[in-house]
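In the design runs reported in the main text, the only information available to the sequence generator was the tokenized backbone. The following block is the verbatim input for one such run; it is reproduced so that readers can re-run the procedure and compare outputs position by position.
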């Protein structure tokens, strides 16, 4: 079946995920349920995004009809085997960006598709290289863009991503919060 004709329930409050699905031409409605974004501490960092995406999808399971598919996702930034989620405050945000400055990091978005009788989880990986950033640039970015709702304290679609990222291995949409190419491909066989 054509993925663009499936009835999708997007279980996400992220405006970026809605924007990407909409621009790619999918049909969807947003329905969300609060989920505690916790995971077992011993879990390998590469598995966390998929685990959290599944948790978010399962929390929305009761909402759906027979012909509907829940889509949930979670994005994490990983550097030196440590997960960077959303920053707590200004200092935390600056500290995260300072760690990313001049370095390569990994962004993983886990996605879960869930219907009444099926479930599928998959993840997309992108490796991202930041140019070195000065303290003044970091302060400008955090003050002006307030990246408190962004994993890793930055958004690829804003000034910092557009002007300070020099290399990406993987897709832009994955870094922005939803690997739409992969979603399309997986929906063809779901
Ligand atoms: C790395 C990066 C993340 N982000 C955003 C995407 C996600 O909204 C957010 C990661 O947080 P998530 O916990 O993945 O998602 P969320 O809490 O925003 O939404 P929900 O749980 O309801 O689905 O960071 C960008 O917009 N640009 C980027 O470059």
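Verbatim output:
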């Amino acid at each position: 079946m054509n993925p663009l004709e499936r009835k999708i329930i997007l279980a996400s409050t992220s405006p970026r995920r809605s924007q990407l699905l909409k621009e790619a031409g999918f049909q969807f409605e947003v329905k969300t349920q609060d989920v505690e974004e916790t995971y077992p501490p011993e879990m390998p960092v590469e598995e966390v995004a998929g685990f959290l995406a599944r948790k978010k999808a399962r929390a929305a399971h009761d909402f759906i009809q027979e012909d509907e598919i829940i889509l949930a996702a979670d994005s994490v930034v990983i550097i030196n085997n440590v997960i960077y989620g959303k920053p707590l405050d200004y200092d935390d945000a600056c500290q995260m960006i300072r760690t990313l400055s001049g370095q390569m990091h990994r962004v993983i978005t886990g996605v879960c598709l869930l219907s009444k009788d099926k479930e599928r989880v998959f993840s997309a990986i992108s490796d991202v290289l930041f140019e070195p950033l000065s303290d003044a640039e970091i302060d400008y970015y955090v003050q002006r863009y307030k990246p408190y709702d962004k994993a890793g304290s930055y958004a690829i679609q804003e000034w910092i991503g557009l002007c300070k990222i020099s290399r990406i291995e993987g897709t832009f949409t994955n870094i922005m919060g939803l690997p739409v190419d992969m979603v399309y491909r997986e929906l063809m066989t779901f």
